[in-house]
Amino acid sequence: MNNVNGSVVGSSSGSGDGSAPRRNSKRPKYSRFTQQELPACKPILTPKWVISVFTLIGVVFVPIGVASLMASNDVVEIVDRYDNVCVPLNMTNDKVAYIQNNETDKSCTRTLEVPKHMSQPIYVYYQLDNFYQNHRRYVKSRNDAQLRKKSQENETSGCDPEKRTKDGAPIVPCGLIAWSLFNDTYIFAIGNKNLTVNKKGISWKSDRDHKFGKDVLPKNFQSGPLIGGGTLDATKPLSEQEDLIVWMRTAALPTFRKLYGKIEQDLNAGDVITVTLENNYNTYSFSGKKKLVLSTSSWLGGKNDFLGIAYLAVGGLCFFLAVAFTIVYLVKPRKLGDPSYLSWNRNPAGH
């Protein structure tokens, strides 16, 4: 038995001493790719190079910032908040009851003075504050297939809670977004002459052509007991109802502006505009604000100082750093090391 066991042990121990080579480590096979030794740009940040880069950024950014601020300052903007002043004095303590009473007169007159010459087109916006169009449930409450094709008017999935009437008939357009359509109206006049507001072309052409059907007509819209906002013309297809199209492109922030129309004539400095508006939209339930905005535009768009200030801040900071590094380099220079002593230069093959 001992001899048998010894032979077994000897044979098993001898099987590990074969002629096959054994790997002494887990190091992978050498490759210039895996060892990151392929040709590459490895710049050395010398003081002259760093100072030059900061100076170049400053030279480019500062003029862009100045041009952006000048363009923003050329935009003439009139902003008037009217939600508080257009409530009767006897109803200021219960604004929600005032706005929900359909028999109460909602008309209001505001006077605006033009501070500077305003060249056409003059864009008319309404601005809402504290209105969260980006709420997940609100954004999802629509059906795009229904908006595009008449054959899909019965498709109301995703439109809760405004999808069907009590009789089960589909609401077109369905969903909370359409139901809460903004419905304040504005009429502008200078003296005895009314200013025409062009409401054509205020929406995106892609929305009119591809998202809202030319054969889809409103049906059973705002027919329930609770009215959320404006109504629609039942004889006009959705592709022609641009107020709805503009409203249904939801905003990303709780404070937003949406285009109401365009005044296509110049306004002179000192002109007094009389605005007759209907204060219909309920923002009092959620402590919202309503503002009327008249604005021109520039090559950069509307009035926005942020872009110019950002460019000036970055450009100024780069100029400051360039000057600081230059002073340090001149006052207390430091000898640079020899790049030839770097590891990848001494041993380029990586072995």
Task: Supply the number of helical segments.
Answer: 10
Which structural category fits the helices and strands? alpha+beta
Q: How large is the radius of gyration?
A: 35 Å
Low-confidence segments, given as residue ranges, are 1-17
What is the overall shape?
Answer: extended
Mean pLDDT, to the nearest integer, reads 88
Give the helix level as a range of percent: 25-40%
Distance between termini?
Answer: 54 Å
Q: Biggest sheet: strands, sense, closure?
A: 5 strands, antiparallel
Q: What is the string of SSEs from the N terminus onward?
A: HHEHEEHHHEEEHHEEEHH
Q: How many structural domains are formed by the residues?
A: 2
Strand content: 15-25%
Would you count the extended β strands for me? 9
Strand order of the largest sheet: 1-9-3-7-6
